[in-house]
Design goal:
Blueprint lengths: L1 E11 L5 E12 L15 H9 L8 H22 L10 H12 L1 E6 L3 H15 L2 E6 L2 H13 L7 E5 H9 L26 E13 L24 E4 L3 H11 L1 H15 L2 E3 L2 H10 L4 E6 H9 L4 E4 L5 E9 L6 H21 L3 E2 L5 H5 L4 E2 L2 H19 L7
Parallel strand pairs: 3-4, 3-5, 7-8, 7-9, 11-13
Antiparallel strand pairs: 1-2, 5-11, 6-9, 6-10, 6-11, 6-12
Length: 405
């Protein structure tokens, strides 16, 4: 690290007066980082650089100073790269280092909430390509979050890698359980996939749509706005997921909180909605025809069923809400090279596997598909901050109670 503290410099003018050049200059430059000294002419930039290099105040020495500082940063950067953790290493031999390190580690443990049929394809392809054994523990998003946090607090660092929706990944960030990742594959992702801290990364996009059974709902019946669902024709024909307060919170705020809550209260009072626990179950109810129209269903679930000829389709009423499934490497991962290699794999070959199974990924090649939805992405931080409160508001609203706010 380069550190300068309370630097004062001056030099005599032609009149014999002391001209103050640098006044109380303090700075720190971490290893491996490049810094600049911006400012107008005569503010003391050159004097500060000369002082750091220990040179006298001759204009002819400025070139030497610049070269010396550049060399200093070059050495620091080389050292930083050599000592960087696998997730942050950016050298030209990055991939080979990861492969060699992962093979020495020989194993990887993943905690995930991804459906088994989707996850198995990715894990199998990774194991086949690299010969690294992957142990997978799969559960619901809340259980994945709870187990990861509980084990960490107990000092049991068993997992390397976590896949969970973005609000739950943001919760792990707040618990300081994830490490930042810098990977060349990130340049191929949409902005919504990359939070500023880079401790988790979106791998696919969940787009919430309104799915319907094509045998039960005629094309001319389809609503064009949310308000159209208040029509009496929809009484007893609408289903909704009972634990989807993140979608509800975001949608209501996009509508305007007062207006949005009033809308859902009216919808429940006039036409009622049948509640189901789980997006997959709700989709199955649409497939069976038991639920003609469902609100807030993942688009890819309907697309998967349509691909095999099932009587299902969907519309996307505006505003259309979306969020990402996130991936991250735990800060105390026992197999950091294997975890980083899997991270890169998930965002390249893994995304292609997901796309083949009708998922919408965060890769820029899926931007045209996302554009047709004009999605509004959940704010993971706001969702976390309001989660407990809006769980109750959502539950009260669905059950016809006036929610206290």
């Amino acid at each position: 690290m380069l550190k300068v503290g309370a630097l004062y410099t001056g030099y005599p003018s032609e009149k014999g007066e002391i001209v103050k050049a640098a006044r109380n200059v303090s700075l720190e430059v971490p290893e491996g980082k490049l810094s600049t000294l911006p400012g107008p002419g005569g503010c003391g930039k050159s004097t500060t650089l000369r002082s750091i290099a220990g040179l006298k105040y001759s204009r002819r020495t400025l070139r030497v100073v610049v070269v010396s500082i550049a060399a200093l940063f070059g050495v620091a950067n080389a050292y930083a790269q050599t000592s960087a953790p696998p997730a942050m290493y950016q050298g030209a031999d990055r991939m080979q280092r990861l492969i060699d390190g992962a093979k020495k580690e020989g194993a990887l443990t993943v905690y995930t909430s991804m459906a088994a049929k989707d996850d198995r394809r990715i894990v199998s392809a990774f194991e086949k390509k690299y010969g690294i054994k992957v142990t997978v523990w799969r559960s619901g998003k809340n259980m994945v979050l709870q187990r990861t946090v509980t084990e960490s607090r107990a000092g049991r660092n068993e997992a390397d890698f976590v896949l969970n929706p973005s609000p739950e990944m943001e919760a792990l960030h707040r618990e300081k359980l994830l490490q930042p990742v810098s990977s060349p594959v990130q340049k191929d992702l949409i902005p919504a996939a990359l939070p500023a801290h880079r401790e988790w990364t979106g791998v696919r996009v969940y787009v919430f749509v309104q799915s319907y059974n094509t045998d039960k709902v005629k094309p001319e019946e389809l609503p064009k706005t949310y308000a159209d669902l208040l029509d009496p024709r929809w009484k007893g024909r609408i289903g909704i997921e009972s634990k989807q307060q993140e979608w509800f919170y975001t949608l209501v705020h996009e509508m305007g909180e007062e207006k949005g809550l009033k809308y859902f209260q009216d919808l429940v009072a006039k036409n009622k909605m049948t509640q189901y626990n789980g997006n997959s179950l709700l989709t199955n109810m649409v497939l069976s025809g038991e639920v003609p129209m469902a609100l807030g269903v993942y688009s890819y679930l309907a697309d998967q069923s349509r691909a095999v000829g099932a009587p299902i389709n969907y519309i996307s009423l505006s505003p259309t809400i979306a969020y990402t499934d996130g991936i991250g490497i735990l800060s105390k991962a026992p197999h950091p090279n294997a975890a980083t290699l899997y991270y890169d794999f998930m965002l390249t070959e893994g995304q292609k596997i997901l796309s083949d199974n009708k998922a919408v990924t965060t890769n820029k090649r899926d931007q045209p598909l996302l554009a047709k939805f004009k999605p509004v992405y959940m704010n993971s931080e706001q969702v976390l901050d309001s989660d407990e409160k809006w769980q109750k508001i959502y539950d009260d609203t669905l059950n016809g109670r006036i929610a206290a706010r």
